[in-house]
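Bug #77: duplicate submission created two jobs. Keeping one. Sequence:
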Amino acid sequence: MAKVLRETPPITEKDCFYIVERHKSEFLYPIHSHQEFELNFVEHGRGVHRVVGDSIEEIGHYDLVLVTGNGLEHAWQQGNCTEPDVREITIQFSSTLLDERLLGRTQFASIRKMFEKARMGVAFSMTGILRVYNFLDSLPTMNEKFEQFLTMLKILYELSQDQGARTLASTSFADVKADRESRRVAKVKEYISNHYAEDLRLEDLSALVGMAPSAFSRFFKQHTTRTLSDYIIDVRLGNAARLLVDTTTSISEICYACGFNNLSNFNRIFKARRGYTPRDFRALFTKNRVYV
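Kept job's structure:
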């Protein structure tokens, strides 16, 4: 299949970031990706469908998302929104704006962790949005550019403190591997990533790291906040979603290629966790892509 629209934001080497504020009643921009980081705020957008990777959700009156994944598809679509005046503020900046030497310093530790999570897209809680609302509200019209830059740093810091923030796309769809975690968990995750299409049993996975099955099951949930079975399903669904988006392979073939042994069960689980059937999910991406 052809590649999705690759956007090139109007940021030069002399710019710290690009900010645009829009008032609209329609969301027409297609699903796209770019290498720049993006913070997108939507106000009075109840009913809009937000797409980030294989996550598709209907938003409320307020929505704030950070995407740092190079090539991670995303878009805000009309959905069920009938609001006559939706406000959108989009801030895009280079991944090198805050380089590794700066992010490695203690004062930037929380921002660095937030950027890592945002490779899958991060949606912030209403509490987090309220913490930065006044900063976001004034940012597009600030005349003093240095103050604007400091305000942007303040926004990033405050958002990095949001305990209610959550990731959106699955790790397998976004092709993200955790950089720092338990070696035992990392070893099992790597095995699952390479063998997700096979029959994966707790006994075999726990034996990989020399632990009893019951002990490893508790250990895995403690370190990932998910059960092992839920994690395996998410990996399989993420890979299935990627095949639905990037190939013309039949849904039944994708089902079995990703480790599901029953098509109706695959359809049921996919809809329960993604909000769409595999067929509708593929149709949404096909309809809203622009090919180049």
